[in-house]
Amino acid sequence: MSPATRKKPFRRKRKPLTQEQLHKREKKAYEKSFRVLFNKLGFTRIATDGIEIKFGGRTGEIDDIFIFKNILVITEYTIGKVNSAHLLKKKILYDHILGNPSGFLEFAKATYKQLPNALESLYPADSFRIRILYASKQEPPQELIENCPSICFNFGATTKYFQALIKTIERSARIEFFKFIGLQYDEIGEDALRHRRDPVVYDGFLLPEGNSSYPKDYKIVSFYADPETLISKSYVLRRDGWRDESHLYQRILIPKKIRQMRRYLTDEKRVFVNNIIVTLPPDTKLNAAGQHGHNLQKTELGRVKPVSVQIPPGFDSIGIVDGQHRVFCYHEGTDRGEKEISQLRKRQNLLATGIVYPASVSDIDRRSFEAKLFLEINDNQARARSALKQDIEIIIRPYSGIAIAKRVVQEMGRRGPYKGMLQTNYFDPPSKIKTSSIVSYGLRPIVKTEGNDSLFSIWDHKDKNKLREEKGSDQTQLLEEYIDFCTRKLNEFMVEVKQAFGSNLWDIDAQPRSPLLSPTAINGQIICLRKIIASGQALSSSAHKRKLNNIAKFKFSAYKSSQWQRLGSDLFTNHYETK
């Protein structure tokens, strides 16, 4: 029989998976991604799924428990739309657990067979700390997050951020994870057993105020620091991290750069000769060299001299302004260079220039100072990208049009018709609507604090003109009120456009999707609203409803790319211009 006439072997066709089977497969993959994440952080997993428990009179199940020394993280997974009623019921069980951690520990040891062997005898029951992590594939409602302050929510971009951070600096990422779940430095591991908190002490040199030209009472010191301490006690205000997004500006760590620098340390066997720039808290003590108990007085700070730099203990005591890659390339890893780098981590081989804040500087002013300093350093070395400058503008010039516009687009991504659909984070999926042009060409002109076509012109607030004075933190509350006003007015208009046009295909993952889900359509609506404001027409929902009753015929899809100006003008002419 020739190959051409040979019969093909019979293959039975696989039945397509049911929706329930697909859901189980997706949930299993999602759970596995978190188990891998915890494993890379150095946690041990205790399998608890499928075991119904009753604690504190409340019945329920726990998906997973992860242990690191004296830290227990109870994890709940969900991939579907977050069911508020379901979580609030589970919260009762969580509250009982958090209210009696020692009692739950004894209960769990008797319930889960793996747990006793996973616990280290070093830690007594009262030293254990328990945290609840709610790992959700979809974003929970903000109201639910606010009503469950004892639960750490991990979803969306935050999950991707930690996955990227762990991939880059491996187990050293657990320091930031501890901060994310609300742990203090002295609650973890051996530090939880101590009855005192030891400061970090380095020998260095003081540069007097007169020599540095920094503001009054700012002190400049130079010293050699060990990377291990810097990694454990520093903070970096990384863009697209989990902290308050309005105060982030540094780029995320670049894996390739970290790998190259680790190879440099092990292959060339040299340290980095250029210094890193850090900030130190106001309670940093400068002692006379060799006299750790003698804190120098102001009269003794007038000349260059050797000093002992005493940095208070705890997370976030050292701010890294420049040089995060040089610090984190010493991370705790699993590559071929780890054995050698584990020794280098403990050596004082990083030259640091530290700026000690005076006690009078507020947290907001500290962030502003660090952002300005970061921009100065990066601008001198290479022109900082415009997107980076816009992020920094939120911190150093929060009352500027671009800063307000960025804050408003962030709020529009949290509430309103475009909730969850705007790309405001590096780790947001590419299907979300890009916002750079919306900030620059749509929102900036409508939120500016002058002109008869801005939301500022119709804002009925007796103190609104104080925003033009740019007094910094004195007007923070007023700024927040204006951002809220702008967001509400934009959302009121856009939700009427959505309802009048029709919400069919209102899904960023749909193919095709509604023509309103594009930067061009959003910018066009904003330009139309500016023209409505300038014409003095009513801005109530009922007024918009009357004007937009025939908008379903408007061809939003006919306007391409940057044709938002024409779209906005045509939308206004067709529906708002008085005939």
Q: Helices, strands, pairings?
A:
Blueprint: H1 19-41, E1 44-47, E2 52-55, E3 58-61, E4 64-68, E5 71-78, H2 84-99, H3 101-111, H4 115-118, E6 129-136, H5 142-147, E7 151-155, H6 156-169, H7 174-180, E8 200-207, H8 209-212, E9 219-225, H9 227-233, E10 234-235, H10 255-268, E11 276-280, E12 285-288, E13 305-311, E14 318-322, H11 324-328, H12 338-344, E15 350-356, H13 363-381, H14 386-396, H15 401-412, E16 422-423, E17 433-434, H16 436-447, H17 476-501, H18 519-535, H19 541-547, H20 564-575
Parallel strand pairs: 5-6, 6-7, 10-14, 11-15, 16-17
Antiparallel strand pairs: 1-4, 2-3, 4-5, 8-9, 8-13, 9-15, 11-14, 12-13
Helix pairs in contact: 13-14, 14-15, 15-16, 15-17, 16-18, 17-18, 18-20
Using DSSP, what is the number of strands?
A: 17
The unreliable regions are: none
Counted up, domains total 3
Shape: globular
Strand fraction equals 15-25%
Strand order of the largest sheet: 10-14-11-15-9-8-13-12
The tally of helices reads 20
Major beta sheet summary: 8 strands, mixed
**What is the structural class?**
alpha/beta
- Helical proportion, percent range: 40-55%
N/C terminus separation:
85 Å
- How big is the Rg? 28 Å
Mean pLDDT: 87
